Amino acid sequence: MDFISHALWGGIVAGRKSKKHFRQAFLFGMAPDVLSFGIFFVMVFGGMAERPDFRIEPPQDDIIPQIIFTLYNYTHSLIVFGFLFFLLWAIFKKPIWTFLAWGVHIILDIFTHSEAFFPTPFLWPISDYYVSGIPWSRPSIFIPNIFLLLFIYAWFFFWRKKAKF
Ligand SMILES: [Zn+2]
Q1: What is the top-level taxon of the source organism (predicted)?
Q2: Predicted local distance difference test score (pLDDT) of residue 162
Q3: How far is the CA of 133 from the centre of ligand 1 (A)?
Q4: Which phi and psi angles does 30 have, rounded to 5°?
Q5: Per-residue pLDDT for 56 more than 80?
């Protein structure tokens, strides 16, 4: 899924309590991609990696440096996520619920990445198992995703306030 959708899903699932919580969940929601693909784009920008051709579908992954795959394994594993969740809990002496946005990101990616391009290694490092899902760039996923987000945010900002849930 694109990182803006991830951030919006993270925000609405794990950050509804206040604006501060929303900002945190929004950032946690996009973090798994920012800390993997984001770094790749910084490398491309800095001339350290070749620029991929996005007109090719699926995008070529053979020019992506190995470090990005490694980072992707770390940031898209539910096992690493669980470990970090409890680590943050131990550090802050309370569960950081907004961090669940990170887990939501992984769960959405499991079903919206096919084996052709970065299938989600959600059981890494214990297992390389993945689900070959439907790529999020397909209109059958991308368009309903936008409408679902619009609908949920409309509910959150308008109807919910009126109905006083
Ligand atoms: Zn992702």
Answers
A1: Bacteria
A2: 61
A3: 13
A4: -95, -10
A5: no
Q: 135: CA distance to ligand 1 center in Å?
A: 12
Check: CB of residue 106 under 8 Å from CB of residue 32. Answer: yes
Ligand 1: centre distance to CA 26 (Å): 14
Q: CA nearest 111: which of 138, 81, 147, 80?
A: 138
Mean pLDDT of 22-30: 98
Residue-wise pLDDT for 97-138, tens only, equals: 999 999 999 999 999 999 888 999 999 999 999 999 998 889
Give the Å distance between the CA of 5 and the centre of ligand 1.
10
Ligand 1 ion: residues within 5 Å (CB): 32-33, 109
**How far apart are the C-alpha atoms of 90 and 12, rounded to whole Å?**
25
Residues 83-110 have a mean pLDDT of 98
Q: State the chain's maximal CA–CA distance in angstroms.
A: 53
Cα–Cα distance measured from residue 83 to residue 134, given in angstroms and rounded to the nearest whole number: 28
Ligand 1 centroid–CA 32 distance in Å is 6
Cα(11)–Cα(5) distance, integer angstroms: 10
Residue 114: what residue type? S
Q: Identity (one letter) of the amino acid at 140? A: S
CB 58 within 8 A of CB 114: yes
Amino acid at 146: I
